[in-house]
Structures are given as structure tokens and as C-alpha cells.
Specification:
The chain is an alpha/beta fold. It has helices at residues 17-31, 99-105, 138-142, 164-173, 185-191, 224-230, 234-259, and strands spanning 5-9, 36-40, 54-58, 70-75, 93-96, 133-136, 155-156, 176-179, 196-198, 217-219. Strand 1 (5-9), helix 1 (17-31) and strand 2 (36-40) form a beta-alpha-beta unit.
Length: 261
Amino acid sequence: MRKPYIIYAPPYSSLSAGIKALHMLNDALNADGYLSITLPMGVAESINVDPEAIVIYPEIVVGNPLNAKHVVRWLLYYAGRYRGNRDFPDTDLCVGYTKLIAKDFGTNAVLFLPTVDETVFTPPPYGTIRKGSCFYAHKHRTFYGSTINPDMAGTEITNPGQSRDEIIRILQTSEVMFAYEDTAMIIEAVLCGCPVVCVPSPQWPECCGMEDFSAGIAWGMDEYNEAKRTLPDARKHYADLKEGFKVQLREFIERTQAWSQ
């Protein structure tokens, strides 16, 4: 018997890759023929849910607000790094968003759902002049109070301080983007033809997605020339990620349906 899915998620926002992933997973499950709904955080607790439903919580959720029998923890980032904790019951099924996130928690289950719209984040028109740099460091400063290297700065990309169109314009006209943390904007940048240099720090010792997507991306300035060399491969690599999601989704469905019986 096919069991339905309930995804416990904040209201949709195009500004958060994690929130987008939760809502896009709901759409993908429905498209595959499985009943799936999203319930909003903060109000869903008053709703009586199907006791046989498979409830999917992002890693930031503490406890089991819906008192679900079958709980899946989708670790969209390293568990306990920013919010939430790592103390999930042994009865929960934990799935990592990337291989590194899964490995960090001690599981091999992965479900990577690409969230960037590659029809919007595109290279600029031929002949567009690129000049200067830009950087993104929201969590780097908000959570850690860390400073920015003046040699790895430029125009700051803020979220939600700029519109999507303005961010695209910055990415299409910058020579390089410096990233101080894991963010979907890394992929958005390379799809706009802007190579990315990740800036390592004690708070960010590794990029959680580079094991599957590295075209156009450098880990430190030493790899910058290689990032520029591989940049033309970015759109092909992204298409491969989208195809890979179809396989991982089938594995996720089979695993969760069998586990919940």
C-alpha cells in the first residue's frame, strides 16, 4: 500500500534554497504518483495527520511536532550546525542533501534536489563586459560575526536586500564571485558564467556540494585558473544533477515506503 507523504515546511520563498527544496520535493512526489502535501510550520501542529503518513522534517526541526509515526529527517545542511540538533531518535530515517552532509551524520542515504532555475540564471548577452568582483557572506557574518577579506570582496550580494533580477545582473557582469559559505548562489553564479572562489575558514572547512558539482568553482584562490577552465562545463554538469535526482528520488521512495511498512 502506498503511504502518503507530509512535508513540514515554512511558506514558500524563492530566497531560500532549503525552503525551495522542500516544496519542490512535494511537487516531485505528486508528479511521481504519490500523494504528498506540505503543512506550514507553526500552524500544522493543530491538524490531525494521517497516522500512517510519512512525515518529512528538515534538519532544523526539533522533536516531532506532528507526533508522526514515520519520521524522515531530510538534512538540508549539517545537522545542528545553525539551528536544530543532531539528537534524532534511532527510529527516524535520516537522509542527507549531499554526500558530505550524509557522511557527516553517518548515513549513506542522499537526496540532492537541484533548486536553481537554469532558464533564468543564464550567461549574459554576447559582448557583455565583466568587471570587478562580488561576494556573498550572509551566515558568515550573521552567525559567526566573521569579517570579510578585503582582497576577496567587491559588490556585496545580500538576501533579501536585492531583487532576483539585480542579483542576476551582478552575476552576469562580475569577473568572479567570492563565497564565504555554502549557498545555492554558487551554482547560480557559474550558470551565469561567473566563476566562484570559495573562501575557506574555520567555520567553513569544506563545500558540501563540490563532490558532485565543481565546474567553475575554486576552493581558494589557488584553484581559480582551474575554475575558469572548467566553467564552460557548468551547464552540462547541472543537467546531469537534474537527471541524477530522478534516480535518487526513485531510491528515496522505495526506501521510505519499505521502511514505513
